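Dear V.,

Thank you for sending over the compound details. I've combined the ligand you provided, S-adenosylmethionine, with the protein sequence from our construct and run the structure prediction for the complex. I'm sharing the raw inputs here so there's no ambiguity about protonation or stereochemistry in the SMILES, which I know was a concern on your side last time.
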Amino acid sequence: MRNEDIAEAFNLSGPDYESSATELINLAASELIERLQLSETDDFIDLGCGPGILVAHAATKLTQGSAVGVDLSRVQLELARDRFRRAPLQQRFIQEDASATSLPNRSADAVGLGLVLPYAERPQQILKEATRLARLGGRVAATVIGSPFLGSPGMRLLGLLERRGVAWPEVELQFDPRHAVQLALLCEIDGRRLDDVTIEEIEREFWWDNFDAWWRMLRSFGFLPSGRDQMLENIARNLREDDRVVDPDGKVRCAVKIWLLSATVSEGDPWL
Ligand SMILES: C[S@@+](CC[C@H](N)C(=O)[O-])C[C@H]1O[C@@H](n2cnc3c(N)ncnc32)[C@H](O)[C@@H]1O
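Below is the predicted structure of the protein with S-adenosylmethionine bound, written out as structure tokens.
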């Protein structure tokens, strides 16, 4: 997805991004923050911060540290700034591309990338930027929604998109974990690299009260191709009547896999 389209999608989502999948977003954030093993004086950078959910989970731990959130979306940044307006935490939120920030080398003890990598045309650039920003021994952690994408309802959606010739929605919805680990292992920059790379899978069932709430979530995450309104209307009509998508009680239940990649920044030749 191009940066302008990402910014536009999340400007349009506004507060719907967070409210459309609160539990999912918070579970992913709390697990990610746990892997960063923050201590109270740490400086934390959140790349692709959205409305500041990772910072919210980190804030209680960073009593004497700081947090910087980076995002392309003006509206998400405003939501983040509002969220922490009265918070004691030293924090700021800047509008920049997470793959090429103006932040100094080695300025963070921990860097988080919450549900952001699949939006990037070159996700490795964001991981590389995280490595550049982290101090030696610092921690980097990232979450992505894994495959099968949003369980059976998500796979039905992908199937219908493919059948209509949209081979791959604009966001690369499915992210292969082995690929993510390979990307992480190739992240050398400034003599430093990601080490002890691990990937974990967290699987939970989430549900949306009705089809419209589920569809709103897909839109808020930028998971629906833009400028294809007629086609999407047809697909929505089709899915609304599909019992593999909507349960008899009207709810949409999805078994969601969250992949959590975590690593430590180290220096020197990995083979020595
Ligand atoms: C799905 S939201 C995730 C928000 C938050 N990190 C979370 O854990 O809920 C993705 C966010 O990443 C931002 N984003 C995507 N690509 C970006 C990039 N290259 N630079 C900065 N922000 C980016 C989007 O604007 C959006 O706010």
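A first observation: The chain has ten helices and seven strands.

Warm regards,
I. M.
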